[in-house]
UniProtKB/TrEMBL annotation:
Pfam families: CMD
Protein name, as recorded: Carboxymuconolactone decarboxylase-like domain-containing protein
Protein origin, superkingdom: Bacteria
SUPFAM superfamilies: AhpD-like (SSF69118)
GO molecular function, one term: peroxiredoxin activity
Start and end residues of each Carboxymuconolactone decarboxylase-like domain: 17-94
Length: 104
């Protein structure tokens, strides 16, 4: 699995596969704990990454969203929705991080 992961996450998975497996299992358990669709979960995770100010996580969730056929404009709308609760600077930064992926 580490071959599929970019950068530091791939390095961690390669060096500590048991830790990565536990992390992946936790992710699967949380995904299956409710009734949200896969699309809804991806957009929520993107929003949480924006709120946390994590450029890497925003890139990751935008990249996964595209792979899951979520429209580019929907990913960008999540950044726009951040304006109210997080402020214009954070939302603009998130928009540029999403563009890094959608315009590549």
């Amino acid at each position: 699995m580490s071959n599929d992961l970019p950068g530091a996450a791939g390095n961690l998975a390669a060096a500590h596969p048991e830790v990565w497996d536990a992390y992946a299992s936790l992710g699967a358990a949380t995904a299956n704990a409710g009734e949200l669709s896969a699309r809804e979960r991806r957009l929520v995770k993107l929003a949480l990454a924006i709120g946390a100010g994590s450029e890497g996580a925003v890139h990751s969730h935008a990249r996964r969203g595209l792979a899951e056929d979520i429209a580019r404009q929907d990913l960008h709308q999540v950044a726009l929705l951040a304006i109210g609760p997080l402020g214009l600077p954070r939302a603009v930064a998130a928009g540029t991080w999403i563009s890094d992926v959608t315009e590549a």
